[in-house]
Amino acid sequence: MAGQMVFPFAQPPPGRLSRAGGKGAPLSLWPRVSRAVVRVPDPRHHQFHIDLPAGQPQIYVHEGARQALIRRLELAQKRPVLLSVTDNYRQMISSSLREGILQARVHHMFLDAPAVVQEALVRYVVTQDRAASLVVGRYIDENGHRIRASRPVSTPLTTQGRTHDLLSLFQKLNLSYFGGAVDALITWGKRTKAKKPRRTIKLGSYSAVERLIRIHPVLDRPWVPRYFISYVIYHEMLHHVMPASHGNGRRMLHPPQFLARERLFRDYERALAWEQAHVTRLLRT
Ligand SMILES: [Zn+2]
Fold it and tell me: What predicted TM-score, i.e. pTM, was given to this entire model?
């Protein structure tokens, strides 16, 4: 009987697509958007250092690991298996049975998953085992940072400003505070002429779907100290690593643990004092 078999999580269950996530949300094999960030090195971040092939980021599949996973699946399934490794951002696992052949598609994060996770993956694909789906779901959650952004960045990125180089500041912060693990992108925002004096100004922002940090170009001035720009970048990097929490049903962008971690920034007090002293000048710039 050649038929198509769609496993419980192969398609988003209606109303359960956990794109927003949050505590108490059903465990699902779909990542939260805020965690959906690219793992594959983005050529635009390296353009000044190394030549990478142009175009979209690519995944480099370890063929030995792919073959090993195929063997595990074939052993459990007792039939031939076709395995595709994907860089999907929504569907992490899918499989179907066609003419006696199991056709499976799995995200590349599973190729170097620990043995227990791979075993669970195999059990999940073969028997849709509930306990196995929990193990697999947890692994996907923990590896959300390896899932590429759900929307590619369309605007060109500019990191070298007239005065300040965002990429070098970003890289220093990444090493000092995040062990080099943050792979968000960064760019100067668009320069726009203010028609009338500003009343507020947003110095930095973070877009989770593009996993992109934008820094306001008013900061690209010789009189703006590097530690202040670093502080703004550091704050946005925290948004990248700490998804908004949903305590008390309210979306909190800066929950207490966020603020506590922000205070770990070396020049925290100094940066706040500088902002206080220069906010008027920033608004007029
Ligand atoms: Zn913020």
Answer: 0.53
